[in-house]
Amino acid sequence: MKLPVFTLPKLKFPSAKPGPLKLNAFTGVFVPTFLSIIGVILYLRLGSLVGNLGVLGTLSIILLAVSVTIATGLSLSSITTNIKIGAGGPYSIISKTLGLEVGGSVGIPLYLAQIFSVALYLLGFTEVWQWLFPNHPTQLILLGVFTLLFFSVVLSTRLAIKLQIVVFGFVLLSLVSIWSGGEWWTKITETLTVGTSTPPGSDATYWALFAIFFPAVTGLMAGIGLSGQLSDSKRQIPIGILTAVGITTVIYILCTLWLGTVADAATLRNDTMAMINQAAWPSLVIIGVLAATFSSALTTFMAAPRLLFAMADNRVVPFSPLFLRVNKRQDPYAAIIFSSGLVLFLLLIGNLNSIASVLTMFFLITYVMINLVVFIEQSLGAVSFRPTLKIPKLVPLYGATVSVLFMFLINALVGLMALSILLLTYLFLVQRRLEAREGDVRSGIFAMVAEWAAKKVMLLPENRTHTWKPNVLLPVVTTRTLLGNFPLIKALTFPNGTMTVLGLKLTDSLRTPEDANLTKSEAETGLTELPRLVKKFSKEKIFTASSTVEVHDYTNGICVALEAIRGQVFHPNILFLPFKPSQLKKPELERIFTTAQRSQAGVMLFDRDQDIGLGSEEDIHIWLPDRTINPNLYENDRMFDLGMILAYRLYNNWNGELHVWMCTSDENKEKARYYIKKLIYEARFPSSTQVHISTSEFIDTLKKAPQGDIHIIPINPQPDIARLRKISKIRGKSFLFVSDSDQEDMLA
Length: 748
Description:
By secondary structure, the protein is α/β, with parallel strands linked by helices.
């Protein structure tokens, strides 16, 4: 296997004694990865695979499993050359990319997988020990080897690391002993027929055997499990992982060919110690098996508590403060003790094959997410993603896709359960409102999707009436305007609308309809609070954004903003003006309406009564112009669609009552009533909507009408300002003058 070439400068790191341990590529990555792969599955289960599937079938499982591991290893190596990996290995990678919620939803299953791995290795150790000493009780052996494991980690992590080097030597000697047994290299062609068919009555299936084998190639998780103790993770993880995966793959292939020559299929299926029995020097293999299984358990047992500690540091797991307790050597002793309890529990209830199958699902989930992280980073094309080891997009895409496929081929039900656990964990962590210390790329992902959608929108015929939603633009000179009008805007936009707050920093004229006595100092002070208020309002489940612009005067600022957003794909479609028609000069108000119409934006002019305000927020009155009784206007040129849509929004969010009014002549009274009822039916308005037909003049009827909580009055895009001012003088009522943008359709 061709290894990547790195040109990173040689760095010297200071001694970390007596603080955190710092490891190099060989001791911190290669050896843990190698020993986790060359372990219990190789020595005790590979023979069963060859006996059931034959050499070719077993090689296919090895190559399939290794292909995903290599893809994941390349993905891991690539991303570790781009970012500094903290404690927790894969958890750190995923959290820094997709956020703490996704990182935790993967980190928790990965932690459990590591705990299961420790139990798997200890059960393998016990199986070999009992083969040597049949009279020794199983539980006593498990308790004894676990006690040795526990104190090896608790007393000295440095001693545990040094012990791995000794074990590595024993494993190499055991492999020499295995390959020296029998003249297998002369009989390779004969091995291809061994165990080519499953014996009658056997329930061993291809994917069941794959599930048992797959934990053998998950050693790269152990290889980055001590990432927090590496002196230069960007350099050491790629070299250590890829070298270990390449060498161990060759070892598995050679051992498969060797097994095919030294025993028949029946022996391999029924004798889990066939590899020991057929070796040139069985004692060396026994020592290698015991050393490898213990060392693999030791490596994983060192990594699992550190993963728990890393998640506790971000409050991902319950009782996080408890798991953050460390000793003088910075070892997370509380996490170690908790992990010990879980391992002991599994040792009491588990067996080797069942634990291996569960492990496979947990690790496949982790593989999916690691590959997905790299694929997303590559797809975003962000300038910050500059790994020194570059890989094609096909590599992480293959790793993620095939990992999901394996989950369902092994056991579709268990695969769905595993993904469900992942989703439930994610939803649980979302509810905890975790606060990350650094950013991630989730915003970039959504921006990429939004850009893709925007391009599609530009290419498609424009017709947004069926997907229309209120996107309000609120210009403010002082934040008092925002605070005072947010309740109404929220009621008009919830649940899927948006609000954009435009802060206007006036340079020439401070004259504004919002506050006639506003001073420059008050305006500037108020606008500084805008980002904080916007963030606060976003928590009210209304997407809120803000920006501040420096303009000469109020009217000019609004018109410039409307012109600027005109060419945007997703732009505000309603301008909200929070003042009375008389508070702005007629030419300026006409200019705003003209610019809004040209920019395809509706206008809401909110004339709030100082005494009544929005009342009890229940009764909504909308006044339709009498010309709507013309049947030809039923489908076209209604000019009140936006007003009706907003009335319906208020009805839903206030849980109030709808009143539809029309003033017409005596001869058209019944005709008008029929028209409005038909309109209500076609628009799917509630049947409780009350219809009021008056034969008096509009102004007189409006004066005599019940106060209500708000009166919505549709107006033309080029309204009669004098008429609006006349209506505005009516006391005891709050008015919302609404002008359509011609993009709304109440019947859609």
